[in-house]
């Protein structure tokens, strides 16, 4: 009976793992034989769903006091699939499907970009488990893989909906590759990003809650292309969080490191 309490958090982790696997299946067309849905959008949607449910395993573990080393390693493996491989496949196959001639001539570039992103995601998750999970309680060291996956999945769907991949001569055509590689390097960067946590300022806490609720609503409705401004909202929110968050992290870098050292003592 004692071991049964570990079932709940690991069930949520299993769900995230499978969402990542199913995302890859959608993106590569493996599910195309029994669905007419846009395979890139559905693949991205499963990445978004995995991101929305990502914290449930940790919450469940704390709720039933069932944290374990197995759970931590399983969670990282699920994150690698859902936020490393799945968004990488989404970017790779979008170019392959919608810009086949360009892809034929730049396949090596796409392979290198995919390799950089996936490798950085793996290193970021390994670094978190080995070094950061017990060091920085109020900040992320580097861009979380969850966030990187969401940004890339949303951006590729947004630009595809705008018909960007029909013309390889525009800057926007190259933007997903730039963001793809940049978010990869940001995952392993030493930059600090504030976590979404309760603060002393009540007004700011309410603001955070409203944004989180809106994000969950937008994420759950992501698959429906008839609902306006969902993609724009997610991209704007993500861009603002990165720019402002990393800016604050740079300004307060010394203070953040000193706080972490003091908490260890």
Give the SSE map.
Blueprint: H1 7-27, H2 39-52, H3 56-63, H4 69-98, H5 100-105, H6 107-132, E1 139-141, H7 145-161, H8 171-187, E2 192-194, H9 202-220, H10 230-251, H11 253-264
Antiparallel strand pairs: 1-2
Walk me through this protein's architecture.
With 265 residues, this protein is mainly alpha-helical. The protein has a single domain, classed as Four Helix Bundle (Hemerythrin (Met), subunit A). The protein is 72% helix and 2% strand. It contains 11 helices and 2 strands, in the order ααααααβααβααα. It has helices spanning 7-27, 39-52, 56-63, 69-98, 100-105, 107-132, 145-161, 171-187, 202-220, 230-251, 253-264, and strands at 139-141, 192-194. It has a two-stranded antiparallel sheet. The longest helix has 30 residues, at 69-98. The radius of gyration is 19 Å and the shape is globular.
